[in-house]
């Protein structure tokens, strides 16, 4: 297969790199595209879109390849693969950064931190910038600097007709609004421009860990602690067995524990004050909070979620951490069969909540916490283990039903989360506005292997898988 004028690499079955090129972060995803177009630049992306349309091929778009639903790869069709487009250019004076559409958060953090700057990114450095940004972007810096999309100033986009447009506050503002949370529905983003903010480069960060038996007490304390925390303090709670990381004392490896992972995006001295009460609560197994480079903190849990393991997620936003919700979490978090499975809760609020709900397509800004239940098993453990871990995640989510607010972070949805959950992510008003923008930029739903927004959809559509389904389901 040839694409006229294509400068990057075209990889097909039988090529030595085919299996590596079609694999994504979630090792349970096993799809065989007809063609992987590893693009070298914007012109390649545009050529690949036109080629796919001319040959009636399904299009999957790959940024970092991290989406748990595996939407970055398809069966039969073409993967427009941006993984070779990872350049990051910082303008320290203007405090902005230009990032190509296949970059990872580690690339951005490293380049920006060389100037003491950062923007809100994910908490694992090998996550892709594109998919994370297009879903909203939550992370340790969000309470101080907002979601990733709150720092998104502009984007270069290859649209469904193979054209190139720039979305900014002045050009195609409707498109910029939709890109700020509406996912990969509106085109292929070849580059992003973000605002940067002063961070570190040394920050006070790390986890405090307590025994699993103390979970309910710790979470009750944490609920009040988090509610009073300054915006500079980002915290993420991890519940599960302790991963065997070199930074964690060996006697704690694989022990069930609750960890509150902190990152204070201000002066270290202020951070010490902000986390003092947390460190003193109860009897921690370990207190690993210390001044460290922000970049090192952002990489600190990379090895706990490597590429190739099998993953299945269930997620929801939470109405709050009531005593009953805490009891449900404490009862279910350690019931997984695999020592690799865990749950993670992000504390939202701060700058995220200060913008109105429809400022960006990421809408659920008044949520205090969300939870992502991550079932994990090894490739050689498939079969019964996969079924047991999957059942655990579903059971856990089901038990949380009374505590759900009716919204969910779109980037945490898995392949079996149907159309109704995509609508849940946005709420009806924002979903409808997204559906209108979709009509303007992709009326034929060319980009539909994603958390799909149906063009012009006004009423709840048939409930069914919306992401990762290898079959065609254009509107
Ligand atoms: C270990 C891990 C940690 C995570 N931590 C966080 C976190 O801290 N905060 C957070 O907010 N999320 C987090 N996530 C979720 C993450 O935001 C999503 O998985 C996101 O989809 C990853 O982006 P990606 O580019 O790697 O995805 P990919 O799998 O490459 O792409 C996912 C979808 O995004 C779209 N897409 C990708 N690239 C482009 C592009 N250039 N142009 C247009 N559309 C594109 C496509 O629709 C594609 O199907 C995490 C995920 C993992 C696996």
Automatic annotation (TrEMBL):
<dbReference type="InterPro" id="IPR016166">
    <property type="entry name" value="FAD-bd_PCMH"/>
</dbReference>
<dbReference type="GO" id="GO:0016491">
    <property type="term" value="F:oxidoreductase activity"/>
</dbReference>
<dbReference type="InterPro" id="IPR016167">
    <property type="entry name" value="FAD-bd_PCMH_sub1"/>
</dbReference>
<protein>
    <submittedName>
        <fullName>FAD-linked oxidase</fullName>
    </submittedName>
</protein>
<dbReference type="InterPro" id="IPR050416">
    <property type="entry name" value="FAD-linked_Oxidoreductase"/>
</dbReference>
<dbReference type="InterPro" id="IPR016169">
    <property type="entry name" value="FAD-bd_PCMH_sub2"/>
</dbReference>
<dbReference type="Pfam" id="PF01565">
    <property type="entry name" value="FAD_binding_4"/>
</dbReference>
<comment type="similarity">
    <text>Belongs to the oxygen-dependent FAD-linked oxidoreductase family.</text>
</comment>
<dbReference type="Pfam" id="PF08031">
    <property type="entry name" value="BBE"/>
</dbReference>
<dbReference type="InterPro" id="IPR006094">
    <property type="entry name" value="Oxid_FAD_bind_N"/>
</dbReference>
<dbReference type="GO" id="GO:0071949">
    <property type="term" value="F:FAD binding"/>
</dbReference>
<feature type="domain" description="FAD-binding PCMH-type">
    <location>
        <begin position="29"/>
        <end position="199"/>
    </location>
</feature>
<keyword id="KW-0560">Oxidoreductase</keyword>
<dbReference type="InterPro" id="IPR006093">
    <property type="entry name" value="Oxy_OxRdtase_FAD_BS"/>
</dbReference>
<dbReference type="InterPro" id="IPR012951">
    <property type="entry name" value="BBE"/>
</dbReference>
<keyword id="KW-0274">FAD</keyword>
<dbReference type="InterPro" id="IPR036318">
    <property type="entry name" value="FAD-bd_PCMH-like_sf"/>
</dbReference>
<keyword id="KW-0285">Flavoprotein</keyword>
């Amino acid at each position: 297969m040839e694409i006229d004028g294509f400068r990057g690499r075209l990889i097909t079955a039988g090529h030595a790199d085919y299996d590596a090129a079609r694999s994504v972060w979630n090792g349970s995803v096993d799809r065989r595209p007809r063609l992987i177009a590893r693009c070298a630049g914007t012109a390649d992306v545009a050529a690949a879109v036109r080629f796919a349309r001319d040959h009636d091929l399904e299009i999957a778009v790959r940024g970092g390849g991290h989406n748990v639903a595996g939407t970055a790869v398809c069966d039969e069709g073409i993967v427009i693969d941006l993984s070779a487009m990872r350049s990051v250019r910082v303008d320290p004076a203007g405090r902005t950064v230009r990032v190509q559409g296949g970059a990872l958060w580690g690339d951005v953090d490293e380049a920006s931190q060389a100037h003491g700057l950062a923007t809100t990114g994910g908490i694992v450095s090998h996550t892709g910038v594109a998919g994370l940004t297009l879903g909203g972007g939550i992370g340790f810096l969000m309470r101080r600097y907002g979601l990733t999309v709150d720092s998104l100033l502009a984007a270069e986009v290859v649209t469904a007709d193979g054209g190139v447009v720039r979305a900014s506050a002045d050009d195609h503002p409707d498109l910029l609004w939709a890109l700020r949370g509406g996912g990969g529905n509106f085109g292929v983003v070849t580059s992003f421009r973000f605002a940067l903010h002063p961070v570190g480069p040394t920050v006070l960060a790390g986890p405090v860990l307590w025994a699993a038996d103390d979970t309910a007490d710790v979470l009750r304390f944490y609920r009040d602690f988090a509610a009073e925390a300054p915006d500079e303090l980002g915290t993420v709670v991890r519940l599960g067995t302790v991963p065997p990381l070199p930074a964690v004392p060996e006697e704690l490896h694989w022990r069930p524990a609750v960890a509150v992972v902190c990152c204070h995006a201000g002066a270290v001295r202020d951070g010490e004050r902000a986390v003092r009460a947390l460190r003193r609560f109860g009897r921690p197994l370990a207190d690993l909070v210390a001044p460290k480079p922000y970049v090192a903190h952002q990489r600190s849990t990379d090895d706990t979620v490597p590429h190739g393991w099998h993953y299945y997620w269930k997620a929801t936003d939470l109405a709050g951490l009531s005593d009953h919700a805490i009891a449900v979490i404490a009862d279910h978090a350690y019931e997984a069969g695999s020592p690799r499975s865990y749950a993670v809760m992000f504390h939202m609020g701060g700058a995220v909540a200060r913008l109105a709900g429809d400022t960006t397509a990421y809408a659920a800004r008044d949520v205090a916490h969300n939870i992502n239940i991550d079932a994990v098993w090894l490739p050689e453990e498939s079969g019964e283990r996969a079924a047991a871990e999957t059942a655990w995640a579903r059971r856990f989510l089901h038990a949380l039903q009374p505590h759900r607010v009716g919204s969910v972070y779109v980037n945490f949805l898995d392949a079996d989360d149907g159309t109704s959950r995509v609508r849940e992510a946005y709420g009806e008003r924002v979903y409808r506005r997204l559906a209108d923008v979709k009509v303007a930029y992709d009326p034929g739903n060319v980009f539909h292997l994603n958390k799909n927004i149906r063009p012009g959809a006004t009423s709840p559509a048939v409930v069914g898988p919306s992401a990762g389904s290898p079959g065609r389901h254009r509107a």
